[in-house]
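Re: zinc ion structure - here you go.
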Amino acid sequence: MKYVIVIPDGCADEPQQSLDGKTPLEAAVTPAMDELAMMGIVGRANHTPQHLPAGSDVANLSLLGFDPNENFTGRAPLEAAAQGIELGDYDWVVRCNLVTIEDQIMNSFTAGHISSLEAQSLLETAQAEIASRPGVRFVPGVSYRNLLIVEGSEQRPAPFSYDTRTTPPHDLSDKLVTEDFPRGPGSGFLCDLMEESHRWFMAHPTNVSRRAGGQLPATNVWLWGLGKKPNLASFQSLHDVRGAMITAVDLLRGLAALVGWDRIEVAGATGYTDTDYAAKGRAAVDALKTFDLVCVHIEAPDEASHEGDVQKKIESLERIDRDIVRPILDRLKKLDNWRMMVTPDHPTYVRTKTHTHGDVPFVMAGDGIAADKIGLYNESNAANSDLYFPEGFRLMDYFLHLKDTRVQIHAATV
Ligand SMILES: [Zn+2]
C-alpha cells in the first residue's frame, strides 16, 4: 500500500471580492485535485486548537497525527531537530529571526529575505558580543530563520517556562512592535538581546552594503517560539508505515526527523514562490519506489499570503496541481493499492497576511474511499461535507487505516 500526502501550506482562505467572491483555491484551475475529489471524498479538519499559536508548527504536528495539546513544545525545537542539534533535557531553543524594524514598525520579518551568508556574518558578530554569557549561542540556519540555544541543567535551569510569551514577527507586518516584546519568565533576557542587537548591527558592514544596494538592512534579532525538545513516538511504531518528507522548510524537516521519517532534499526547492515545483513532483514519484508514505510540503501559498498577493497564491496552487499532484496521481493510478490526500495545515488569509485558526478542506481518494460526489475541491464544498475532524490529529488514523476515532468520543459522551 502506498500513501501520498500533499500539503499546500496556508492555501485555505476566505472569499475574495477581487475574485467575485471565490477563494484562491476556488479560483485556481486545479484539474488534478478536482479529479481526486471526483474519485474520493472532500471534508474538513481543524489542526489549530484555539489556545495554541495558529502556525505551521502546531498544525503540521496535528496533520501528522500527533495531538498538539500533548506534544507541542514550541516551534524552535522542531527547527533544531531539522539541523540535527541534540538538545539536553534542560536546554531551551529559541527561533531567532533577522528582521527590519524602523521607527518601532516591523518593516520586514525576513530582513528583506536576507541571504544565508549575510545572516551568518551578522550572527558571528552577535555571538562575539555575547561571548561573556556561558551556554548561550546563536545557530545560523537558512536566510532569516536562525536559532538561539540557551543551555540549562538541573542545578542551573534556563530562566524560561511555558508561560514565557512571545509573538511571531510575521504576525506584526507593518505594525508597531513595542507591545509585542517577550513577556513572562526569562523575558528580560530575551528583550535585552533583541534591543542590544540594534547596536550590534547598526554599522555592520553587511548592512552598509545592503543599504548601498537598495536592500533592507537587518536591524534586530527577533526572538520567539521557544521550547524544549518534544518526545514524539516514531511514526513507524504507531502506524507500521515507513515515511519520507519532501520540503524546503526547516520546521517540517525537524518534524520529520522527530517522528523518524527520512528527509529527501530537492535541488531548486526554496521554501518560497520561486521553488522548483516540477523537481519536487519528480522526487515524490521517485520516492514511491522506496517508501510507504511520501509527504510533499510546499510553502509557496503561505508565503504569497504573507505578502497579501492573491494572484501569486492562485499561481502557486495551479503549479502545485500541474507539477506535483498530477504526476503523483498518474503514477499512483498505475498501482494496485494506494491512497492520496491533499490538505493545507491552516488557513493564511491574504487579507490579514497572517496565519489563522480555523478549519481547512481536505480531499482524499484511493483504496477503501467511496466517492462522495460532493464535487470540486474547495472550502465551500468541504463546508458542505459532514466529514469533519474538529480534532484534526485524528484525520491521520482515518487516512492510513480508515479508523474513525471520532466515533469513540461521541460514544463515550452519550
Ligand atoms: Zn503553514
